[in-house]
Structures are given as C-alpha cells and as structure tokens.
Amino acid sequence: MKRFLHNYGFLIAVAGTVIVLDQLSKEWVRRTLAPEEIWSPWHWLIPYARIINWHNFGAAFGIFQNGSMVFTILAIIVSILIIYYFPRIPHEDRLLRLALGLQLGGAMGNLIDRATQGYVTDFVSVSTFPVFNVADACISIGAVLLLISVWLAERPSDSKTDEESNDGSSDPQAIATNMPSQTTPETIPNAVPKEHRDD
Questions:
Q1: How many folded domains does the chain comprise?
Q2: Domain containing 74: what range?
Q3: Is 171 a catalytic residue?
Q4: DSSP per-residue string spanning 126-156
Q5: Which candidate in 136, 162, 167, 198 is catalytic?
C-alpha cells in the first residue's frame, strides 16, 4: 500500500479533485437548467459569457459530433497509458506529473458522463467559443503543461551542447594555445648543456 501511494498518490489527488469538481458542476447544471436553457447572473453579460445546459455527443468543445463510442474508447486507452506511465516519471518532474493528473481527471470526468448518460454535459459558454466544461478545461491545461514540461526538459541538453562548443575544447588551435610550454635544451635550437659551456 505504501508503494502504491508513493507511485500514484499525487495522480489520485489531482485526478480525483478534477473529477469531483467536474461532476459536481455538471450535476448542478443538470438540476438547475433544462437542456439548452441559458442562465447568467446579469442579463447584459449573456452575449459575452453564460451558463447553458448543453448535451455534447462528440469530443471536447463539441467537435466530431456523434462519435461518442469512439471517444469513449480513446478516453479508456489514454487513461490506461497515463496510469501505466506515471510511476516512471521522476518525482522531481512536478510539471509533467501535474499535466498527466489533469488529463487523466478530465478524461475520466467526461468518460463518466458518456458511460452514465450517453453524452457529455457542457455548460461554460464564452462569446462564440465552443461550449466546454471543467474536464475539457483540465485536458487543455494539461496539454499545455505537457508541452512546457517537454520544452524545459530539452533545454539543459541544448545549453550543455552550446557550452561544450563554446569552451573551445575541440578546437586544435585552442588546445595548442592552452598547452603548457616546455622549455628544455632539446627544444631550444643551438642550446648547449651547462656543463659544456665555457666559463
């Protein structure tokens, strides 16, 4: 059990928080609003931002409608891959661990909807942007953090290569310049050993 928590404690905490927030917000929308009903605390805000009970039969942000079964299978595959790969990530790589936790929570949140309702409840509508939910937002944020983590991981190797190329260690001229000078009788033309010199 201790080993399990060591490997998966962080993932469970992040993904679990996302799932709880996602499911609670969706349940509030389903109980409060009829399908496609719009709500906003201020009437003037409706053209810019509103809450709507929207049934999404496609992927995140409403794309690829009527592909619920395909995205259910993809969500399961992605979740399995994240769970398999997560223990191999160093604990110091917090950004990558957070990214995968957000993505797993988002995938599971929408997967619960598809398994229990046959569609995903979306409710956040901003201007003309596609309607989304907490799970969609976490998947997107996780993807951005994943890209940043990969970029940061590649930076040290690039800098090290630049430093090695700039220190002149492979430059023959630099090697010759940095070699200690050896002044011996054999290297000085016409040098005469001290014992053979005329006083």
A1: 1
A2: 2-155
A3: no
A4: ETTSPPB-HHHHHHHHHHHHHHHHHHHHHHH
A5: 136
